[in-house]
Design brief:
Isopropylmalate Dehydrogenase, 11 helices, 2 domains, alpha/beta, 298 residues
Length: 298
C-alpha cells in the first residue's frame, strides 16, 4: 500500500537522480522545484528556454545555477523539440513541461523524428494524497483524453495499472465511476463499464480488479455497497478511479486540492518516458511531487 507521498519520494531516492529535460524553465516555481529536487537527489535538471530570462529569475531569487546545463531557446516550438531531442539522444531520461503550452510539448513528443511513441495511448494520471483517505489514489484521465472511447479507456486503465505496479501495487483495484450503478444507454460510461469489467475478467488488465459502474459514494464506502446490496472487492479501497471524461477528472481532482487539502502530482504516461505535466500555476511542492513520481516509475 502506498500510504503517502513520502513513500514515492523514498522510491525515487532509491533510483537516484534522473535527467529531466525541462521545457520552458523561465519560471520561479519551476526553477525552485528543479533545484530542490536536485538537492534531494532525485533529479538532474537540463534547463531549456531563454537563458537570459532564466538567469534573471535565478538572480532575483538567489538561485545558484552554476552546475546546471542551460540550453538557450527563445522559441517555444524549438524549446519543446529540444526536450524531445535530448531524450531521443539518450541525454535525458524524462521530460518536464515548465512554462510552456501543453500542445507544443505533446506535438514534439508525437513527432516521429524523435521516436518517443510506443504505440500506446498517451494518458494523464493524477496521483493524490487525500487527508481523509487511507492511501494514495490515482485519478485518470484528468488532463489528456477529452471524451475517451471504450477502446481509449482500455488503454487508460492499462497505463494506470502499469504505473501502480511499477510502484509496487501488484493487484490494483480499479473503480469505474458513473453517476450510479444502473446501466443505461443515456449514460455511455455505464455501458463502457460493463464491457471494461468483462475485459478485466478475460485478463485484459492483468491482475487488476476492475469493477463498475459505481457512484463515488460506493467507490469510497464499503458500507454504501452493503446498503445497495452490491458485493464488491473495490468499494472502500480503490487504488484507481477511472472518470468518465476529462471534465469530471479535472473538476474532481482540483476540488480535492482546494476543498480537502489534498496533495497532487501529475504526469503523462504511454510514451517512452514519463512526462511531468501539471498546471503552470502550481507551486514548487507540486512540481517536486510530480518529479518524484516520474522518477519512481522511470
Amino acid at each position: 500500500m502506498l500510504k503517502d507521498y513520502q513513500s514515492i519520494i523514498e522510491k525515487a531516492l532509491k533510483k537516484g537522480r534522473r535527467r529531466f529535460a525541462v521545457a520552458g524553465a523561465e519560471s520561479k516555481e519551476v526553477l525552485e522545484a528543479c533545484l530542490r529536487a536536485q538537492d534531494m537527489g532525485i533529479m538532474e535538471p537540463l534547463l531549456i528556454g531563454a537563458e537570459s530570462n532564466i538567469r534573471s529569475i535565478a538572480g532575483t531569487e538567489h538561485f545558484v545555477l552554476k552546475s546546471i546545463r542551460i540550453y538557450d531557446s527563445s522559441n517555444t516550438v524549438a524549446t519543446a523539440e529540444k526536450a524531445a531531442e535530448l531524450v531521443h539522444e539518450g541525454i535525458a531520461d524524462a521530460i518536464m513541461k515548465g512554462n510552456i503550452s501543453t500542445p507544443n510539448v505533446l506535438k514534439a513528443i508525437l513527432d516521429k523524428r524523435f521516436g518517443l511513441r510506443t504505440g500506446n495511448l498517451l494518458s494523464h494520471i493524477a496521483l493524490m494524497e487525500v487527508p481523509t483517505y487511507h492511501k494514495l489514489i490515482l485519478i485518470t484521465d484528468s488532463g489528456m483524453v477529452i471524451r475517451p472511447t471504450l477502446e481509449q479507456k482500455v488503454h487508460i486503465i492499462q497505463n494506470a495499472v502499469l504505473v501502480l505496479q511499477k510502484l509496487g501495487i501488484d493487484i490494483p483495484k480499479v473503480a469505474i465511476l458513473a453517476a450510479n450503478e444502473k446501466v443505461s444507454p443515456d449514460m455511455p460510461e455505464t455501458e463502457h463499464a460493463v464491457r471494461l469489467v468483462q475485459i478485466a475478467k478475460q485478463g485484459g488488465f492483468g491482475n487488476a480488479i476492475v469493477e463498475g459502474p459505481m457512484a463515488l459514494d460506493m467507490a469510497f464506502s464499503s458500507e454504501s455497497a452493503r446498503i445497495k446490496g452490491v458485493e464488491s472487492r473495490v468499494a472502500g479501497d480503490p487504488d484507481i478511479l477511472l472518470v468518465p471524461d476529462i471534465a469530471c477528472g479535472n473538476i474532481f481532482s482540483k476540488g480535492l486540492v482546494y476543498l480537502a487539502n489534498a496533495k497532487i502530482s501529475g504526469i503523462v504516461v504511454g510514451a517512452r518516458m514519463p512526462i511531468v505535466l501539471i498546471s503552470r500555476a502550481e507551486k514548487a511542492e507540486t512540481w517536486i511531487r510530480s518529479i518524484a513520481l516520474a522518477n519512481a516509475i522511470s
